[in-house]
Amino acid sequence: MDAIILVGGQGTRLRPLTAARHKSLVPVCNRPAITYLFEWLRTSGIERVILAIGQNNEDLAEAFPEGRDHGFELRHIVEKQRLESGGAIRNAVQTAGIDDTFVVLNGDIYVDFDFQEALRAHRAASADLSLALAPVDDPSDFGVAVLDDDGFVTGFVEKPPHGEAPSNLVNAGAWIFEREIVDQIPAGAVRVEETLFPSLVARRRPVLGYCFDGTWADIGTTQRYLDLNLQLLHQRGEAAIAASAKVAAEGHVERSAIGDGTCVEQGASIVDSVVWDECQVGRDASVWRSILADSVKVGAGAHVEGSVIGRGAVVESGAVVPPGTILEPGTRYDADDGR
Question: Which segments of the chain does DSSP mark as H helices, in order?
């Protein structure tokens, strides 16, 4: 079976983290995010994975070249223009010659459930399309599905107001397609979530809502990205510290991921945070519930809390960076800033 991963987006909701890395390459517990999807697809029995790559995404293509070295065949299909999800699926299916049931994944999700069980449910229901649905506490930021008693989708509500959602089941960005419905995707750059899916439901075609029991996360925003890292770190029961990272004997790292070449000096404290590669956290500095991209420097005695620090930015010694701060790549935050 084939799988298409939609990786054509520019990761704008993850900026400034995606200023220098493709959104699928941002590290989750020190591994590129997309490798978790690869692992899930491989263990699910997928034989070929097609990356629907957007323009200016050469770093992703270079990181994961075509071939069979991944436990499956990997193929790239590069878009010549912006296609959105519908156009990307149609283009990938036609170019790769997919002629049977296949899977589509959004590239900015983490997912782990029994795919073979989902496939059996899809086939038992003779569904044209099956949508993996995840229960969430607050569905107001997602597309919500409404199901009948047999589990078929009867409608969608996009980002319902707080307290007004018809269900808490949201589109998880993992879909099982029958090949013939691809020809029903409208021409041009269109989103299947806004065109094909509601059209199938309106015509009473069998669209199954598969409510799965497993882990799911949308990592399309910096907060959700941090939350996923913390969830996986909690499951590990320990920090994720890269082999080449250096943590001083009196440095403190708790429920955090520390990337390659990063140095945590004496007395420094990093808690509930994600620190990428080649960063430096100075003596007696503290980083709490924050994300530091590559090559960030936090000076001695500085305090960073609830912030996102872009690649190569510098927090000066003694500076206090308050919650909600976003530092663009290469910028500096002085001790007098924000006071």
Answer: 33-43, 58-63, 84-96, 115-124, 196-202, 222-236
Please check whether residues 94 and 218 belong to one and the same domain.
Answer: yes
Residue type, 91: N
CATH number for position 259: 2.160.10.10
Contact 234, 252 (CB under 8 A): no
Strand partners, 275: 258, 292
168, 146 in Cβ contact below 8 A?
A: no
In contact, 299 and 316? CB cutoff 8 Å: yes
How many whole angstroms separate alpha carbon 209 and alpha carbon 211? Answer: 6
Question: CB neighbours (10 Å) of residue 187?
Answer: 8
Read off the pLDDT of residues 260-281 as tens digits, 9 standing for 90 and up: 999 999 999 999 999 999 999 9
Burial class (CB in 10 A: 0-12, 13-18, 19+), 108: buried
Residues 141 and 72 in one domain: yes
* pLDDT tens digit sequence for 232-269: 999 988 999 999 999 999 999 999 999 999 999 999 99
Helices (H), 2-144: 33-43, 58-63, 84-96, 115-124
The answer to whether 321 and 305 are in contact (CB under 8 A) is: yes
The pLDDT, as a whole number, for residue 339 is 46
DSSP per-residue codes, 231-256 = HHHHHHTS-EE-TT-EE-TT-EEES-
Region 17-33: what's the mean pLDDT? 92
Q: Residues 12-21, buried b or exposed e (16+ Cβ, 10 A)?
A: ebbbbbbeeb
* Averaged pLDDT for residues 2-21: 87
Record the pTM.
0.92
Q: Is 55 within the bounds of a domain?
A: yes
